[in-house]
């Protein structure tokens, strides 16, 4: 078990395990894997509190979503994903960045119900919890019930690939809700490789690019920082400027790594505290990212919790 945040245990989200391939199984259900960030909604006497995965109260940042949830027909704790839907009708993590929020519509995709009118539902089967969730959700353009498909994960995954979605979720139909735990009862199957990373430094600008050349990336391994490569693509001019403004405030004199890494002579080191997400082609034999592309910062994750995510076979 791994504690995921400063949230009370009963509010901590259940976490999924990355697996290597889709499958068909009558004992499982399959849902879209949304490209946003996790958000827990607690509704009590019509008042709504929204929490990020790392325990921050974010109700004021998403006032419209909180107001929509005031119409939930029960006191409840709901688990879901906040996403931004682009013009293509697909959720995109990049659009959740503050500078781009105006380009997309926000949507809270609710997929689980852990408490209802004081009753703890976490030991009840997933499909029962989802049925009860659907019954209390209001009809609102900012709220969606996360529908599921039974048994056929391979076909659902092929559809997700065709639509350009991030992937699918596979959940055991009778699974309980394990607050704060990562279990094999929930699996995530991605259409492309992605990894959360911690920014450890940035290199000097090159050619005509302003602000910086590339970011130095790290993950936590045991009690140290492990270098996993540089990322120099995926940045707009606006992103370069805004990110550089955050990084210069975190400058430190020394590298956080125990050994030497690439381009140290042109690197400005920063305190490893900013979490980002990248997509990439594969891991190299040295444990570095091949062809990473920057997607954006993640404010819902803590740097010390970022480790290399490894695929596990379901067999």
Structure description:
- By secondary structure, this protein is mainly beta.
- The protein is built from four helices and 19 strands.
- The strands form four sheets. Strands 3, 4, 5, 6, 7 and 8 form a six-stranded mixed beta sheet that branches. Strands 12, 13, 14, 15, 16 and 19 form a six-stranded antiparallel beta sheet that branches. A five-stranded mixed beta sheet has the order 1-11-10-2-9.
- Strand 3 and strand 4 form a beta hairpin.
- The radius of gyration is 20 Å and the shape is globular.
Write the SSE topology.
Blueprint: E1 15-18, E2 24-32, E3 37-44, E4 47-52, H1 63-69, E5 76-85, E6 105-116, E7 119-120, H2 126-136, E8 143-145, E9 149-152, H3 153-163, E10 167-172, E11 182-190, E12 193-203, E13 215-221, E14 224-231, H4 237-247, E15 267-269, E16 275-280, E17 282-283, E18 289-290, E19 293-297
Parallel strand pairs: 1-11, 6-8
Antiparallel strand pairs: 2-9, 2-10, 3-4, 3-5, 5-6, 6-7, 10-11, 12-13, 12-15, 12-16, 13-14, 16-19, 17-18
Query: Beta-sheet strand percentage?
Result: 35-45%
- How many β-strand stretches? 19
CATH architecture of the largest domain: 2-Layer Sandwich
Query: What is the percent of helical residues?
Result: 10-25%
CATH topology of the largest domain: D-amino Acid Aminotransferase, Chain A, domain 1
How many helical elements?
4
Number of domains: 2
Largest sheet: 6 strands, mixed
Q: Mean pLDDT, as a whole number?
A: 91
**Separation of termini?**
21 Å
Shape: globular
- Provide the low-confidence segments as ranges: none
CATH class division of the largest domain: Alpha Beta
* Rg: 20 Å
Q: Would you identify the CATH H-level superfamily of the largest domain?
A: DNA ligase/mRNA capping enzyme
Protein structure class: mainly beta
